[in-house]
Amino acid sequence: MRKESLAYAKNVLSPLKFSLGMLSRLPSVVFWGVRVQELDGHTCKVTIPYGWRTQNPFRSIYFAALGGAAELSTGALCQMHLAGRPAHSMLVTEFRMEYTKKAVGMVTFSCRQGEELERLLDGLSVAGSTGTLTMESAGTDQAGETVARAFITWSFRRKG
User: Fold this and answer.
1) Burial of 37 by CB count in 10 Å (0-12 exposed, 13-18 middle, 19+ buried)?
2) Which residues have CB under 8 Å from 116's CB, separation 6+?
3) CATH number for the domain harbouring residue 112
4) Which of 46, 106, 121, 160 has the fewest CB atoms lying closer than 10 Å?
5) pLDDT, tens digit, for every residue of 14-71?
6) Element (H, E) at 82
């Protein structure tokens, strides 16, 4: 793994550095209490707590908060794999989420497509080349039961 990717992961895994970085880019993530628990070449795990900041009127975690945590679990993995590469743009082109159980405790979203992402990015070898990848992030509660599953399609374009 590139040293820039390792440095990115180290910064994201630091609660203080993560919160400071998110305040300027995604302040809702800080408000909701989202944390990156694990980030390596293969996997990203993100947690979101149940509480007054994330609760909806039905006493479960608000769908948008769950969606934000799910997107972050894929996006942080993308950013880590892009670190140290020539400039790329990335954009969510499709987002779909399935809710299967009421989310009333800590939920962990896990995306395990780091190797597949790395192969896609390696294939974007010339400026202007593009690719897409639909990444899945499964959200589980503290009992290990799936509460939601997100399917996020990222589009990448190599700039230089």
Assistant:
1) middle
2) 133
3) 3.10.129.10
4) 160
5) 999 999 999 999 999 999 999 999 999 999 999 999 999 999 999 999 999 999 999 9
6) helix 63-82
Tell the residue number behind the tokens 């293969």, with chain if given.
42
Please give the torsion angle defined by the CA atoms of residues 154, 99, 69 and 133, in that order, rounded to the nearest 10 degrees.
Answer: -10
Burial label, 49 (beta-carbon count in 10 A; 0-12, 13-18, 19+): middle
Residue type at position 65: A
Query: What order do you get walking across the sheet with 130-140 strand by strand?
Result: 35-39, 44-48, 107-111, 130-140, 146-158, 88-99
Q: Give the domain extent around 39.
A: 3-158
Residue 157 DSSP label? E
Q: Tokens 């799936």 label which residue?
A: 146
Tokens matching residue 154:
């990222």
Q: How far apart are CA 47 and CA 88, in angstroms?
A: 27
Helix (H) / strand (E) element for 147: namely: strand 146-158
Domain tally, the chain: 1
Rg (Cα) of the chain, in Å, rounded?
A: 16
| pTM for this entry | 0.95
